[in-house]
Write a structure and sequence with these properties.
The longest helix has 27 residues. This protein has two domains: 97 residues, no CATH class; 162 residues, no CATH class. With 260 residues, the chain is mainly α. It has nine helices and no strands.
Length: 260
């Protein structure tokens, strides 16, 4: 039975990942619907038949090309499907078939979409983060490891924390360091993970962003004018906290026990 459910979790993640690719492609495009029309080749616009739309497998069988026009299909498509499949499997391993599985499945799907949209367009759509805040807070009334107080404080502290950092950076440098989308994203993360996640998420995302930013500055040669999206780092840090929060707290307690 466990093998069946494990396989089902993988398949569910891959299928949802296929839909997330449509969201990633169409959501930033003005006037595009994520529902209609059905999936089609972005080059020749030919509708994709069901047997060419099987997550991951169809990409491999077609060798990464459209059957109709032969154009190369972006590696992003199987990558998103594989990532969502593995995240779904990880959720099932951690939470089994519970409310938390479906609650955090929605959370991770939203984060995955945000990562790829922000990387390409440097925007975080409000249509994901704002409903995400509401869903996270509503779900806290049913979650076994998150209280509505933790979620509520997480929303206020998450949004307020980044807003304060952004305003401080603006006052010190005269330049906008992060957009309002990052602020709303951290509020959404606080809603799903509680206020206790925020210190780690901000620290880990800032550290990773700084390291990548230095490499980008050197490569692009633009110095302080180099811009990289911060949303993916926030989203990845939130994913790490979700799956390893007990280890993170244990390491933090060990650090405090050293007397520093």
């Amino acid at each position: 039975m466990d093998t069946v459910l494990t396989t089902a979790a993988l398949v569910l993640g891959a299928v949802v990942g296929s839909f997330l690719n449509v969201v990633i492609l169409r959501l930033p495009a003005e006037g595009e619907s994520i529902v209609f029309p059905a999936s089609r080749c972005p080059f020749c616009r030919t509708p994709i038949r069901w047997y060419d739309n099987i997550p991951i497998l169809s990409y491999l069988l077609l060798r990464g090309r459209c059957r109709a026009c032969g154009q190369s299909i972006s590696l992003q498509y199987p990558l998103v499907e594989l990532c969502m499949a593995l995240l779904s499997l990880a959720l099932y391993t951690k939470f089994a078939l519970s409310f938390e599985f479906f609650f955090y499945f929605l959370f991770l799907a939203g984060l995955l979409v945000i990562i790829f949209i922000d990387l390409r367009h440097q925007i975080i759509p409000d249509v994901i983060s704002l409903p995400g805040i509401a869903v996270g807070f509503a779900g806290s009334f049913f979650a076994s490891q998150l209280t509505w107080q933790q979620s509520g404080i997480g929303i206020l502290a998450g949004g307020g924390l980044l807003y304060g950092v952004a305003m401080g950076y603006l006052l010190l440098t005269g330049r906008e360091g992060m957009g309002g989308g990052d602020v709303k994203l951290l509020a959404m993360i606080g809603a799903f993970l509680g206020w206790q996640s925020l210190l780690f998420v901000v620290f880990a995302s800032s550290l990773a962003g700084s390291i990548i930013g230095i490499f980008a500055m050197v490569k692009q040669g633009k110095g302080g004018r180099t811009r990289i999206p911060y949303g993916p780092f926030l989203a990845l840090a939130a994913m790490v906290f979700l799956f390893f929060q007990q280890d993170i707290f244990r390491l933090w307690q060990s650090y405090l026990a050293l007397g520093f």
